[in-house]
Fold this sequence. Notes:
By secondary structure, the protein is α/β, with parallel strands linked by helices. The protein has helices at 19-30, 42-52, 69-83, 109-136, 160-178, 199-202, 205-211, 227-234, and strands at 10-14, 34-39, 59-63, 88-91, 140-145, 183-190, 245-248. Helix 5 (160-178) links the parallel strand 5 and strand 6. The chain has one domain (2-248): Rossmann fold. The site of NADPH dihydro-nicotinamide-adenine-dinucleotide phosphate (NDP) has 30 residues, from helix 1 and helix 4.
Amino acid sequence: MQRFDLKGKVALVTGGNGGIGQGIARGLLECGAAVVIAGRNEEKNKAAVSELSKIGPPVSALVLDVTNEGQCRAAVEEVVRRHGRLDILVNNAGMGAPGGPALPDDMPLVSWHKVIDTNLTSAFVLSQLAYPEMKKVGGGKIINIGSISSYMGAPRWTAYGPAKAGIVQLSKNCASAWGKDNIQVNTIWPGLIDTAMTKTLQGDKAFMARVLPRIAAGRVGAPHDFAGVAAFLASRASDYVTGADITVDGGLLWGV
Ligand code: NDP
């Protein structure tokens, strides 16, 4: 359908080499966008490109640590060098906590900074770098990845929760500032999704027995569950949607 057509558009997806990011890259490619995925691990990058290139439109990778400002600048420049423009930025790269989730009473400050830098500051840095490129082409779409922990609390989401809450307000403020430039900025809130990040959690029988009954969809989410919503938020179908939060959680957030 033309309204969701992304032909001629160029996307940068951080953390696009696996999990939710790869599901999002798939959705953008299926609608015709050229996609550059970015992650630290070159082997994962290569494997994802090989898988995603079966879809059709050009897909390539670059090595990027989103906590490194210089690498972020180089990444945006490289996308523009490869494709001549940047229309869509997906700030998806994220992590739990180094060494595992920690209680507020014993999380080391260095871990706090790492989580905030990876999950929140990177989205600010990359959005700021993408902004002039999007202006040049008459508009753009920024999709930030929050979490149900943007809203809910838990004992061990000490830094992760604040980072994911922060990205919601970053989205709204960028949406407000850049609406005049035809740039829409929205946040997707995943629930419990089957990726490398949640492998340990999914092995916790007591946790799963508590959480699964609260998911109306009756199952844990999968990366492909993000393909459609990302394509919508990247396309002109969502031109009047900005500063919005969209939960993709099978109903977990409101389930009792
Ligand atoms: P994965 O662990 O499967 O993927 C994380 C991705 O982020 C990888 O591609 C990884 O690539 C990349 N990444 C991590 N740190 C960096 C960094 N410093 N620089 C560049 N890339 C980085 O996790 P998910 O797919 O589950 O997570 C994707 C997003 O969804 C995250 O923001 C996460 O917080 C969020 N989320 C996930 C939920 C879930 O249930 N899975 C629930 C709620 C939110 P590489 O290792 O190559 O750098």
